[in-house]
Design goal:
The structure is a single chain. The chain has five helices and seven strands, in the order βααββαβαβαββ. By secondary structure, the protein is of the alpha+beta class. The protein has one domain: Gcn5-related N-acetyltransferase (GNAT) (Aminopeptidase, 3-Layer(aba) Sandwich), CATH 3.40.630. It has a seven-stranded mixed sheet with strand order 1-2-3-4-5-7-6, sandwiched between helices. It is globular and about 35 Å long. One of its GO terms (molecular function) is acyltransferase activity. It is an enzyme of class 2 (transferase). It comes from Streptacidiphilus alkalitolerans. Its EC number is 2.3.1.-. It holds the Pfam family Acetyltransf_1.
């Protein structure tokens, strides 16, 4: 059996499920340490913002019949965060990833819009799908949509100790800018940028 992954734009009805997946992925990466409710609320607000481009990855198992429904089992991925593909397919699929693209703002998100700058955040993948290139598909999808718009450059922040994410971003042409900051948990964040015009 082969896995099928579909990336699509989210609808407002998807926000709750997307936040649940993002939360479960974050908790797993932090070895079970729960997230403060304020972090979860902020993620939900960002995903629901009218100007946000929230993309979702859905996974199913192809049993060779062409209907994409696999063996009929489509467990919740992470923390019961499952949903349907919403793409009109014959079979249901579970939500396995999220990514958010928004207009980049000056002064780390509190200043004026920076023309041509896409800010990427809230990338998450269901822990049982880590290492299966779901994150790469999501980053590729958001960059493709950004290039089709007016964006010329992309940026993001990630934890310095998140080796999986750092490897992904470097492999996809992002380079560290040299900027760092400490988050509200005392953990080091590193900043990446890349051009979208080459």
């Amino acid at each position: 059996m082969g896995a099928t992954v579909v990336v699509r734009e989210a609808a407002s009805a998807d926000i709750e499920t997307a936040v649940a997946l993002w939360t479960a992925s974050h908790v797993a990466r932090r070895n079970g340490r729960p997230l403060p409710e304020a972090h979860i609320t902020l993620a939900q607000q960002r995903m629901a913002a009218p100007e946000a481009l929230l993309l979702l990855a859905h996974g199913s198992v192809d049993d060779g019949s062409g209907n994409g429904s696999g063996n009929g089992s489509h467990g919740g991925g992470a923390g019961g965060a499952d949903g349907t593909s919403g793409a009109g397919g014959a079979g249901a699929s579970s939500l396995i990833g999220t990514i958010l693209g928004i207009q980049g703002l000056d002064q780390d998100g509190v200043g004026a819009p920076v023309p041509g700058l896409l800010h990427i955040s809230l990338l998450s993948v269901a822990p049982d799908r880590w290492g299966q290139h779901v994150g790469r598909l999501l980053v590729e999808a958001v960059l493709t949509r950004a290039r089709a718009g007016s964006f010329r450059e992309a940026q993001l922040w990630t934890h310095a100790d998140n080796l999986r994410a750092n490897r992904l971003y470097k492999a996809m042409g992002f380079r560290r800018s040299g900027r760092v900051r400490v988050d509200d948990w005392g953990e080091l964040l590193v900043h990446y940028r890349r051009s979208l015009t080459d």
